[in-house]
Model the fold of this input.
Amino acid sequence: MEYLNKVTIRGQVGSVRTTDVQGKILTRMSVATQEVYKDGNNPMVVETTWHNVEGWDKEGLKLSDTKKGDKVYVEGRLKMQRYLNAEGHECTAYSIIASKFEKVTD
Done:
């Protein structure tokens, strides 16, 4: 059996940070996606989800050229990380490790 870990999103950039990690470019950004649906009493509900996206080297350079408000298309794999917060509670964070990244126009 072959396993698959693939995520595709298209959304709007919230923030972008680029750093040098031991000679490799790492760019982290937040990307918002929206789902619009009808809900019983409300005619339209807009639900926004924020995604953490990371790009290394070649993809990191592409990501570093983006700015807040840009619309983007991202393909990659989902990475889960567990950590303890300041109060000592275990938390889980998810990131998309980008393998393909493009700016898009409407």
Notes: Residues 23 and 43 are 51 Å apart (CA to CA). Helices lie at 57-64. The mean pLDDT is 91. The chain is about 10% helix and 70% strand.
